[in-house]
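pasting for ref. prot 1 ->
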Amino acid sequence: MWRNHEGRRRNRLFIIILLIAAAIMAACRRSNPEAAALLARADSLLNPPPSTAARSQGADTPPAGGPQGALHLLDSVQHQARTAWPKADRMRYEVLLAEAMNKSYKPFTTDSVLKQVVRYYDRHGSNDEQLKAHYLLGCAYRDMGEAPAAINAWQEAVDCADTLRTDCDYNTLYRVYGQMAEIYTRQYLTDKALEAQKFNCRYAILAGDTLYYIHGLLMLADNYYALKDTDAVFQHIEQARLLYLERGMRHEAARVYPTAIQIALEHGHYKRAHRMLHIFEQESGLFDEDGNISEGYQKYYYHKGNYYLGVNQPDSAEKFFRKLLPIPSNTIDGYRGLGVLFQSESKVDSALKYAHLYEFALVDYLNATQAEAVRQAASMYDYTRNEQDARVKSIEAKRTKNILQGVLCTAFLIISLIYITYRRYREKRTTEVMQLSKLYQDTSRKLSSTLDELSILNSENKTLERLKQEYAEKLQVQSDNTIEKNRTIAKLLTQNRQIKEDMIAIQKNRDLLIAKKDKEVEVLRKGIKHQHDQLMKLKAPEREIALKDTDIVKFFIQIGQPHKNSNTSGSLIVPAREATEKEWTDLSTTFQKYLPTFIAYLTEEVELSSQEYKACLLFRLNLPGNEIATLLGTSSPRISKLKGILNAKLFSSDKISKFLMNLKKL
């Protein structure tokens, strides 16, 4: 019974600990309702639902609010968010703020905040949250001109993505690859750019962003152009054009052709170039009423001049080449076109003039771009070196991680084995202790029963001795001369002699039985002494286990369960049955056998009242206060007060919290 009682207490303690831990975790992860609502609103502005996003695609203006609206909203609560909001809300705020800045083309000037965000989500975030945090950190490095660090951050973002999940954040993932492709392209790492751009297109489709997918196809065409794969260039451009037309976007469909036109002209396919030039001129929407093209697309004049040059219309070719001369970014193309034109017409002076102008312009261009070229080369070198360092560090990190995991697994297995072995040992030891305690109790009961039988036999022996004496006295009668009296006396003597012989035989049997019982008592006493010696060799906790398994302790635990007295109003708590003084004595005697030093201290070192002594026994059994109150026939407040009195008497201390711990040390 005491084990059930202890088990219930442990279960209650375990449940309380779990509830406290759950409360702490909930408190750590709780969110400010106002903050959550504002962040949800900002998120909806940055990432509108698919239906809203679909309606806005192809429009001249973004949906109402958009990144600018989100940025304004987040800026308005910046101080409050960074000083008063819980950490979870604060980290989400920083992510949304960075995302709004990125989508609003506001350059990042520092990476410190985003580093904190990355550390937080690496420990507490989901895969998608980690993906976005690393992506935005890479964007910060991009704006700060640290291309190698940006690539590393985006690679870490890719590693965070769980593409096996159907709800993976593909919107962020394809943007990561798009940014990587752009960096690789600027660094002339065409193969890497091509690989990143393919992933960009794949995840744009999975994200449902068709327009970004089409843009990715055109970027792939540029990559294939750099690799001289003209068939792949035309394939991707035509695929992009068809997708634009399917969506009713004729202007965009016509604007895909400049690279294809250039390739057709380079290979002398003038009919194909003419068809694409016609579509571009008629459907792109880039030309005004006078035939002038919009700024940024003036390269078209160079293609048009080359076309007329190829179909032998030099006047028209010269017209378009000269349109390039006033445009600083296209002057070189104008000089080059005119030089080739006049050379084809054998106008040597004009050809030499524009050849020299082309040469001088090209030198100026090269001088102007030399620093950028050096910077790009350094960036490429830095990236290659950082990539190698990152690869080495990644391998080392994985090796360290594997070693650590191996060590942790081994340690876990060892600890588990030790725990299981120790638990089995404790269970086996507890069983042995309880068996020893049971044997000790059984032997004690058998000795007590044998002593009682021996006492009865000794008492019966005394009775027989007394009867024998009485019979002897009756035989001493005076002689009588009458024949009849002599005959009567002779008869009585014969009868008494037979009774005496029977009594002697009975006494002899009794003596044998008493001798046998004496031997049994001697054996039992030796057994008890041996078992008691074994009990005393046990550690105090084991002796307490044995003590709590005794019948008298179980009895006190049973009657200590409080219940309401049916003869009262229901408020009085009484024991199931009050313990007698003999039962209290038996409890004290049992304590003496199992915890002799404890009883010696209570009886010899301090002066305690009867109730205080009994209370000490019950406290040592670790019974609840209400059960102790029930057994002592008092109230729970009185037990609390009694604990303080005993603490002062036994330990000269006023720290009641340590009373039970100190009591167990006695």
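and prot 2 ->
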Amino acid sequence: MRQGQLLLAGLLLFVALSSADSIDLTSGSVYSAILETRGLSPNWAGLIIVDNGTNGQVDTTPFVSMTLNTPTIIEAPFPGTNLKNDLYYYAAMVPSYTINTNNIQNMTPKDLLVNELFNSTEYPIFYPYYENLTDNPNGTFCCVEANITIAGKNFTAYKAILNQSIPYYLLKYNVSNTTTPLFLVDIADATCYNGTSCIGVFMLPVNTNAYNFYILPQTTTYNITTWIDGVETRTFSQTARPYNLTVLVKDLFSGVPQTGKDVAVYEQGGQNLFIPLELSGIVNTAWSIGQTDGSGMEEWLVAPTAYPEVVNYTIGVAVVESDQLVSPITLSITTYDSLPSSSKTVTPSELRDDAVAAVNAMNQIVNFLFEWASNREEGKRFRYDYETTTGTWTTYIYVSPLGYVASPATLKSGAPNQVEVRLLTSGTPQTGSVRARERNGFLILNPRTGSTPLSAKSRAHYQTIPTGTQFIITPTSYSFVTSNITFDLYNQGGTLLDTLTININNSLNIQGGGASLSDDDLKATVNQMNGIINSLYLALNT
């Protein structure tokens, strides 16, 4: 480690916490702080960042501004509770620019020479003796390179290692041929200079000008604009109504429309047929995925399903990457405690015709689900055992009065299928989880199945349940739709062990040999879904 780096790390190592000040910050506000305490180096100030318990948000503009005009160490609470996973950076620079990643540049040895990147105008603390200072930026950073990624772009930064092995990065930012240093540190739970907990550390040259702080991602981040029935808004006026939802996806930092991107409209905790009973503490997700066109746009027919309560309910839009929702935005619903019975125009006529067919099919499915769950108080029951020592599945069906019998298992469309998945090692149950997912079935959220006049969408509904927990699913494979159901099995560490494709009987009929199933919550949910589908039917047919 160079002498300058020793001084930098030593500043964090030897100044006691009792000599560090702290200030309270509120996310989204701008502050100016004058720092008074002493440090070891007369040219650098230290910033110990702690989690203030609030979420942070990636943005192109700074979330806080601070003046560090004396050599001091200060403890500052920053937002970032949701970002402590080594996928985000806190970044600092003096000018309050709107960040565009096209303006971030790689470091070169020349940048750290006298009156280059750290010039006497912007960083007078190092002058007139820049070259003679052992802790000048050249002695501190030159020239250990590190490849880092910001917003999906790769950069060559210089890296210093702070005390407790915390990496610290330096890049440059260029606007109109004027460059300025850009300092970055990972957002992650860490142990700081004196053994205290923190989520980041900055060492910044003492400066009378304020430093502006940003949150930057490693992966590409998107800006999503939405129109509902042609009006730019994020609010649906009424639940259980068909709306045209149009989205535009741009790169957040460059503003360039993103073509060929998978983008989804999604619900969490909504009313959907595949998962007719939500388990306590387990949120189900439904989404319809399309792909942006050459202008970065995509369009859906959407019917929110929040009714009559909205506990743990979310509807939104997000880019989908590696099966994850990226840069989600939340939409809202003005009225969700009542169901309208009037008509609502859907154009063009081909779109309306396709929606009518989908709603009619879902109406048939929910009618049979009502017959099973409410009138007969009966369901189908299955168990799926996975043995880790052999990597094999054994399936069971419940036959009254015998109980579970080893047999090939086929779930029924339109029925409440009560399922339990067990993870076993030599017959002993293990802790794990299973993701039950139906693809390309019917979704109330997206009540259509065609490929014209809107583009074709892939639809999915899933939830992740602890192994050994009974859950209820209803396949929606019926009529002109053939769905696919899979169980993804994970061990306790989250490693995927196997994926099982589930057999489906897509006939809507009542079969004997089921198990008794009396559940008031299931009955209530089925009634609510029936009301939502009926409201959609009236909107499209009156």
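The helical segments are 3-14, 137-141, 349-375, 520-541.
The CA atoms of residues 133 and 490 lie 56 Å apart.
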